[in-house]
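Incident log, structure service

09:12 report received: a user says their structure output differs between two submissions of the same chain.
09:20 pulled the input from the user's history:
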Amino acid sequence: MKKMPLKTILVLGILFFLPVIFLLFLYPSTHHYNPLDIVGKNVSELQFFNSSSEEEIQLKDHITIIGFLGSTPVDHVIAASNLKELVYDKFKGFKKFQIVIVLPKGAEDSAIQLQKEINNYDDMRFWHYVFGEPNDINNLFNSLKSEEALDETLFTDHIFIVDKDLTQRGRLDDREDKQKERDEAIYPLYSYDCIEVAEVKNKMSDDLRILFTEYRQKRKGEFDSSTRRDEDIKETN
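09:34 re-ran on a clean worker, output below:
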């Protein structure tokens, strides 16, 4: 029987072991990634708000994106369209995901107009409008950590991630790699500017994927809570 050339054996060996080595490198990262940081706790629930549907809308037990579009939401169609196209359309199939748009009472008709502007006959079951008194809207907003403020119409173009435990998620350290190399001061990311397409498309999408991975691992019993830097939240207070 003719022996196989050494070169052929080496090539076959490399082709066989290379995928195995690649998977071994991936294995630790799958189980020991850094979860999305906790940047705030005790986000207020929506008990003082009315919904545009008969369904009761709540934050508890949901992964929620919260937006505040003010008394004339139709004036902010660009922000809403970015939110729908870059976030809602991408994640609406994930379990317990929802978007909640907070508006003052009296903005119901404007909300209907906005819905017509951004909806191309898509499934919008997980996109909700809730209406409240200005005081209740301010209380909800103030329960979130933010470097921005609501304007006089109760609008901001910044949106927030709230997890199933009424905990706000974001980044305690939002520096780029080059900034870390230069040892620049640490700064957080509490919210995401939905006018800035790159920020929503890249940072927010990545952060949501990390959060969904965390909950998927929790369901499978694979989540290691010791990797979460929960205590680091004290440094931002």
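09:41 both user submissions now match this output. Likely a transient worker issue. Closing.
09:42 reviewer note: The radius of gyration is 22 Å. Residues 6-31 form the longest helix (26 residues).
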